[in-house]
Amino acid sequence: MWQGWFVTAGGGQELSAWRTLHSVPPSTEAANTELQEMSIPQFLLKGSVVVSAVVALLTNFSVLLCFTQSAELRSHVPGIFTLNLSISNVILALINMPATFLGVASSAKPLRDPLCRAVSFTETFITCNAMLSMAALSVDRWVAVVFPLRYSSKMRYRDALVIVSYSWLHSLTFSLIQLMMGWGAYSHTYASCTLHLDAEGASRRSAYVTFTALFHCSSFALCLFVLCCAYLKVLRVARSHCKRIDVITVQTLLLLVDIHPSVKERCLAQQRKRRRRAAKKICIFIGSFIICFSPYVITRLVELLPSVDVPRHWGIATKCLVYAKASSDPFVYCLLRHQYRKVLVNVIYRIVRKDHYFLSAHSTGSMWDATNENFPERIT
After folding, report:
1. Percent of the chain with pLDDT over 70
2. What pairs with residue 184 in β-bridges?
3. pLDDT score for 134
4. In terms of Cα–Cα distance, which of 139, 7, 319 is closest to 310?
């Protein structure tokens, strides 16, 4: 108690003398305090990156497995966009998420410069390609709902391949410009190899600011605009269809006088459920895109201001939200649909049945071996 009072009340000289007497370097004490303060957020960030990587690999590989096992899914035109999105998410989980985990764990540059530039190139390409794939899926839904009778002629396999080719070309253009200008490096703010202007390229800051703003406007802002326009038109058409169905249902219920009240209540409940279903799905599509991408994009744009210094924990947290989108996309677009669930159940059933057959055959063989061994004893 006396030592604590002396250190507090004595001022700077007494504090230095007390540290010298007890052999406590000031830097070591500050480092230990900083380590205690930073350990819990760092642990949470590392855990979120690991969870995102594992879930993204499992779910996206499940989508790819469904495509390999179902000819019906491969025959659908939206499957091309979904396949492109799943492959992008798998690459992101295999390359960029481990690099970010190493950056968070070591709090230093995890890779050498050539490899870090390659990882940064991959991140720019994959992120832009994934956003454009989501926009393509929204356009496909809009064509299917607004023009149901002409969907097969408006959205063909050739048209889908053209859209995917444009998505790759669009993403590759920005990635190559970033690579040639040397703007792919390790960023301590995001603990990852990403689009970053190091100290050596400070003279080209105006070009970097223009490129970064143009990149996010042509990827995030463009895709968000397409998603909102397409899905809001889909919602409008879905509500008009629901109103027509509701009118027919009410007229039918009025004609059926002897119908049981529970049946009427069930029909009305289905009406309310139909109204909420379309709005709920569209909120999930647009909401997940905004929640996962907008904090990161806004942070990258605000970071361009000279006087802004982004905290490291906030930068890594926004990066984790982008990774969370890669792990949630299979649920949003694929695995919650009946066709994909049916294929997955069939695959799991075949695997379980094969294992059961192998175990039963092994147990039967062991039983016959035991019988053959005991057979001479029974004869004697």
Report:
1. 74
2. 195
3. 95
4. 319
